[in-house]
Amino acid sequence: MQNVALEPIDLLAALVLEDGRRWGDIAADFQWDDAEAIFSDDGPLWHFLTRSRGGSKTTDLAGVSLVWLATDAPPGSRGYVFAGSRDQAAILLDAAIRHA
Predict the structure, then answer these.
(1) Is 9 in contact with 41 (CB distance < 8 Å)?
(2) pLDDT tens, residue by residue, 19-53
(3) Which residue, 61, 57, 63, 62, is CA-closest to 15?
(4) 25: exposed, middle or buried (C-beta count within 10 Å: 0-12, 13-18, 19+)?
């Protein structure tokens, strides 16, 4: 069996969402742009996403975080994701659990 290394953006695109569709099949251009910026080797290492309500901030960030941990994070790394409230943090954690 041959090992195939996926690029982080490819792995993100393959994540299955709660409704059974794959992220890459339904992501809008702005979602792709944000994900590509985050996984780019050029540019900042810190990212601040602002989107309107319903813009998939929480779900996308959960997926991006899991993909980063699986592909780019050095062994023993810690990644931090912040939410504006406990309720939003619980939603983020739930989204990550669904992706895992």
Answers:
(1) no
(2) 999 999 999 999 999 999 999 988 777 888 888 88
(3) 63
(4) exposed
